[in-house]
Amino acid sequence: MCQGLEDPEVDIHSERFVKSLFSEMSRTYGVVNLLSSLGFAYFWRKLAVRALPKDSLQVCDLMTGGAECLTHMRTHFGKETRMELVDWCEDMCARARQTVRRYHGKQVEVINASALALPSQDASYDAVVSTFGLKTLSPDELLDFVREVKRVLKPGGSISLLEFSMPENAMVRFFFRLYVKFYVPFLGWLFLGESGQLPDAVAIHQGVWELQKGRPAV
Ligand SMILES: C[S@@+](CC[C@H](N)C(=O)[O-])C[C@H]1O[C@@H](n2cnc3c(N)ncnc32)[C@H](O)[C@@H]1O
């Protein structure tokens, strides 16, 4: 179980917590994510990638996880497109490298770095995508994230962001809460072998609320 998960005092946005959470989940993240989204995550990512201009030559996937967007990026962008996949969790980067090898990605590089302090130069990318990572960032970090994306995007570049949101419809919200309270922890029990909560349930619950309470105005 991720250290400190059951401690209400734990800072769920701290680097230590987020890295250990995803390190622990790295082996099963892909399948848990597919099941926990009932398969929708695949299609949502596809839409997020397809929202970017097809002719982008330099593209970056921030908080890439196990490179879950890569299959869509390869289909959407041309063979000439160079793709950089960034994640700060070494175990997730290892998964991403496996995915890259499966796709024989010569034009793809996995970079172990923080999305808030990228090693990239200013104006490096035509397009940036980031899926399901925003909920792990605190409100202050969200601002840093937006500033960093603005720095590395070329003038006129594009960004596509994807994240869960709390449903506005009361009935849908009711079912979403049941889903977070029962279904996601059930998957945690199934895949992590713990009767406690799946770490992602905590992140979904708290992170999604925080995201909607304080949207950064940059
Ligand atoms: C919920 S996963 C999303 C993975 C993938 N993008 C997807 O669509 O499923 C969030 C990922 O963001 C990474 N992450 C969180 N905060 C980060 C940061 N500040 N810098 C780089 N990666 C970060 C985590 O290590 C984790 O792999």
UniProtKB/TrEMBL annotation:
CDD domains tied to this protein: AdoMet_MTases (cd02440)
Coiled coil: none
GO annotation, biological process: methylation
Keyword annotations from UniProtKB, A to Z: Methyltransferase, S-adenosyl-L-methionine, Transferase
GO terms for MF: methyltransferase activity
Domain of life: Bacteria
InterPro entries with a match to the protein in the record: Methyltransf_Superfamily, SAM-dependent_MTases_sf, UbiE/COQ5_MeTrFase_CS
Gene3D superfamilies, per database record: Vaccinia Virus protein VP39
Name of the featured protein: Demethylmenaquinone methyltransferase / 2-methoxy-6-polyprenyl-1,4-benzoquinol methylase
